[in-house]
Design a protein that fits this description.
CATH architecture of the largest domain: 3-Layer(aba) Sandwich
Distance between the termini: 52 Å
Number of domains: 2
Structural class: alpha/beta
Shape: globular
Radius of gyration: 19 Å
Largest sheet: 7 strands, parallel
Strand order of the largest sheet: 3-2-1-4-5-6-9
Helix content: 40-55%
Number of helices: 9
Bound molecules: nicotinamide-adenine-dinucleotide
Strand content: 5-15%
CATH topology of the largest domain: Rossmann fold
Order of helices and strands: HEHEHEHEHEHEEHHEHE
């Protein structure tokens, strides 16, 4: 194979070679799936999130071993603007710029409005929404200088419809779609796109724990918990996978997606088609 063909093959299989991606909340679940997919596409990756030191090291080492790209880790707390600013200072010092920003960190709390703990409301708005404002405002100048960037906001089907007892989560995820539109409009002529992905239920370790827990507490088989409890709203009755979410994120970074901006991709098995 001659050099030109080898180089073409590598830009086809590793279209993000030379780029740097930050995925917030990527020590587990969807964020880790997206970080792995971006690394498979050739991008250096900055992981972020909480968890056991040895598990984070294993996730980091696994990406390096599987895809041979540089992987760093930031323990920045997405509920704290100053911690996000410090993460950017370190990251921009190391890498110069962030090319792909995936705002994924998120938490949930379920309670009726009158009893919803005020501290939980504040934490959900800070982590699920305000952190994306801070990372976006800090990432944009470098992207604008380069004339290229991709911002992907992980919202939820709950960014499009509501569910009782999830006031803070639904408000934050709806807010995320507003932020997505405004970001896209402000940078529409600069080679930067900003879009949201709205997953329904995605199969992650947390979802597995819920299946086990509900099967035990209701005394019903796990298949019934999946179909009638967890996926009650989801017409296709299957979980999306973190690999599927990774594939969609990589698509949004591709040249084919250059004109997709300010919009939402629902990955919810038909939930919001009701
Ligand atoms: P998860 O709990 O497996 O992962 C959440 C990640 O966020 C973890 O890495 C965690 O350490 C990190 N995190 C939490 N608080 C943080 C903080 N203060 N600072 C930094 N990192 C923090 O959850 P997941 O299911 O993978 O969810 C990821 C995103 O996808 C969330 O925004 C969630 O709302 C959204 N989502 C998930 C589903 C689903 O079915 N799993 C569906 C729709 C949307």
């Amino acid at each position: 194979m001659n050099l030109a063909i080898t180089e073409r093959a590598s830009t086809t299989t590793q279209p993000l070679k030379g780029k740097v991606s930050l995925v917030t909340g990527s020590t587990s679940g969807i964020g880790l799936g997206i970080a792995r997919a971006l690394a498979a596409a050739g991008s250096a990756v900055v992981l972020n999130g909480f968890g056991k030191h040895e598990e984070i090291k294993a996730a980091q080492g696994g990406i390096v071993a599987d895809f041979g790209v540089p992987v760093s880790y930031s323990a920045a707390d997405m509920s704290k603007p100053e911690s996000i600013a410090e993460m950017f200072e370190t990251m921009l010092g190391e890498h110069g710029a962030v090319d792909v920003l995936v705002n994924n960190a998120g938490i949930q709390h379920v309670a009726p409005l009158p009893e919803f703990p005020v501290a939980k409301w504040d934490a959900i708005i800070a982590i699920n929404l305000s952190s994306a404002f801070h990372t976006t405002r800090l990432a944009l100048p470098g992207m604008i200088d380069k004339g290229w960037g991709r911002i992907i906001n992980i919202a939820s089907a709950h960014g499009l419809v509501g569910s009782a007892f999830k006031s803070a989560y639904v408000a934050a995820k709806h807010g995320m779609l507003g932020l997505t539109k405004v970001t896209a409009l402000e940078v529409a002529e600069t080679g930067i796109t900003c879009n949201a992905i709205c997953p329904g239920y995605v199969y992650t370790p947390l979802v597995e724990a819920q299946i086990e827990g509900q099967a035990k507490s209701h005394g019903i088989p796990r298949e019934q918990v999946i179909r009638d409890v967890l996926l009650a709203q989801q017409p296709n009755k299957r979980f999306a996978t973190t690999d599927e979410l990774g594939g969609i994120a990589v698509f949004l970074t591709s040249d084919a997606a250059a004109s997709i901006t300010g919009t939402t991709i629902a990955v919810d098995g038909g939930w919001t088609a009701h």
